[in-house]
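User: Reviewer 2 asked us to show a designed sequence for the structure in our supplementary figure. I'm pasting the structure tokens here. Could you produce the per-position amino acids so we can include them in the response letter?
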């Protein structure tokens, strides 16, 4: 029969098999849990000045190498995902003889493909490694995007969009997990925000690129919407080939870190996760991810926000056109809202990491975006509606990035975290499926039904986030004040595999 323990502060034995018999449970937990005075920042040792310098230099190197790579990859991913909205203004619907709402179906079927692969693809990422896996995904969706220039009917468009979703499906959760291999939890949101800002950049650049490409209509016999897919797909293929050589796999396998920095990079990640740091692949951790109810609240929150992000990203050119602007002008006017989204995503990420808080910033973003929809519904002035569009993107885009950080921060060990990120990303794709259907052609030009559904979905996200906030605050109090309540009657093996439930792992709320 397996031996079980009840722990108390008077017990001098070491329940983790450590040799220091004088170390009590309370002392050990105090050395591994977060210090509340440091705003959730891990407080494992008194960091000496030389260690601080090493940490600073390491983060600078990572930021100059990792962040530009991930941002560029996601820029291309989002560009190839939403360029169908630009192609619509370039007469895609007319040339393919699309009937009412078929364009909406083509938007949503992308997310069906992505939804099917989010979780298994993140597990494959662990097996194959980031270098091979992320580069392969890039090459795959680049080929699909390029081939979309050859579709001639609705069936071809639906097939291409479905396989584009499969090819791109593993990227968002894959990059989020990839960043957790390099950065501590209180460093996540800025880096996730910066890579997700690639979506804002793609939205802004997509309108500009589409405007330029539309001037080439008829080149080599291609319509302008075909050229949009062709040029942007070939760009992705080219970058994918470079990815096999520039995407790093792990801190210990790269030449641009010194041996000392490689060792420190690995150790600081182990310290940051504390008792949640288990890198070995175990099937039990996969199952644990699906049994953790917290991830489903996050799933709901991400779904609600993504309904807003996906629908607005696809239909922003049409929404602006509905304000009375011509096709080409509408393409250019999509740029400022995305610039606003870029600015708020980065600013919120900076302050979120500085405070090591997530949910207050998610709440702020969802309220801001919902307010934008309310203005779109009730305002009649064109300038007012345009400002409202900027508010929607300014609030919803950073909320997506911060919710992803919420998941990367609060689930452990590594395999469970990877699966939970995949579940969260599946929520994004469910939101995309719904978002692709809420702006109907019959509702042009005001789209009141779509705006109302999007605003309501943000309300659901808000409620889910608030519930998680109060739960994490409650359970953190127990972990700090009464850790024995969690550990009593557990075996050493069970304690070892508690992951984020361990008292030494404090949730970031």
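Assistant: Here is a per-position design you can include in the supplement:
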């Amino acid at each position: 029969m397996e031996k079980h323990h009840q722990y108390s502060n008077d017990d001098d034995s070491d329940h983790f098999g450590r040799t220091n018999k004088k170390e009590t449970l309370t002392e050990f937990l105090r050395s591994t849990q977060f210090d509340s005075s440091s705003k959730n920042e891990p407080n494992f040792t008194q960091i000496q000045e030389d260690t601080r310098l090493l940490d600073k230099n390491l983060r600078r190197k990572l930021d100059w190498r990792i962040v530009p790579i991930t941002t560029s990859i996601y820029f291309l991913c989002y560009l190839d995902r939403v360029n169908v909205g630009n192609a619509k203004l370039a007469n895609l619907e007319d040339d393919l003889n699309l009937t009412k709402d078929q364009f909406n179906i083509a938007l949503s079927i992308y997310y069906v493909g992505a939804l099917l692969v989010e979780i298994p693809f993140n597990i494959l990422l662990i097996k194959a490694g980031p270098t091979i896996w992320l580069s392969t995904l890039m090459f795959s969706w680049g080929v699909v995007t390029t081939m979309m220039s050859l579709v001639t009917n609705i069936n071809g468009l639906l097939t291409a969009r479905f396989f584009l979703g499969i090819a791109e499906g593993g990227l968002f959760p894959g990059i989020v997990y990839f960043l957790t291999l390099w950065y501590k939890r209180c460093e996540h949101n800025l880096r996730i925000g910066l890579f997700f800002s690639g979506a804002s950049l793609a939205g802004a650049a997509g309108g500009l690129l589409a405007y330029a490409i539309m001037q080439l209509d008829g080149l080599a016999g291609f319509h302008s919407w075909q050229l949009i897919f062709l040029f942007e797909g070939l760009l992705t293929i080219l970058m994918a080939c470079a990815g096999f050589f520039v995407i790093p796999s792990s801190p210990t396998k790269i030449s641009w870190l010194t041996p000392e920095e490689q060792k420190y990079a690995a150790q600081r990640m182990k310290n940051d996760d504390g008792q949640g740091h288990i890198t070995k692949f175990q099937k039990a951790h996969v199952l644990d991810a699906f049994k953790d109810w917290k991830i489903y609240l996050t799933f709901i929150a991400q779904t609600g926000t993504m309904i807003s992000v996906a629908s607005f990203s696809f239909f922003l050119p049409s929404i602006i056109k509905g304000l009375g602007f011509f096709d080409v002008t509408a393409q250019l006017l999509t740029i400022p809202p995305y610039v606003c989204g870029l600015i708020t995503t980065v600013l919120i990420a900076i302050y979120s990491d500085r405070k090591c808080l997530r949910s207050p910033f998610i709440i702020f973003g969802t309220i801001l975006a919902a307010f934008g929809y309310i203005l779109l519904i009730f305002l009649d002035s064109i300038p007012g509606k345009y400002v409202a569009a900027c508010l929607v993107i300014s609030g919803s885009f950073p909320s997506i990035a911060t919710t992803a950080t919420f998941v990367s921060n609060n689930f452990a060990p590594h395999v469970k975290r990877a699966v939970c990120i995949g579940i969260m990303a599946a929520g994004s794709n469910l939101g995309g499926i719904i978002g692709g259907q809420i702006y109907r052609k019959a509702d042009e030009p005001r789209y009141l039904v779509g705006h109302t559904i999007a605003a309501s979905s943000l309300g659901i996200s808000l409620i889910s986030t608030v519930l998680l906030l109060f739960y994490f605050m409650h359970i953190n109090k127990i972990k700090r004040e009464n850790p024995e309540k969690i550990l009593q009657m557990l075996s050493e093996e069970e304690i070892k595999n508690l992951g984020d439930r361990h008292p030494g792992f404090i949730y970031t709320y």
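For the response letter, you might also mention the following. Residues 215 and 224 are 8 Å apart (CA to CA). Confidence is low (pLDDT under 50) at residues 1-47.
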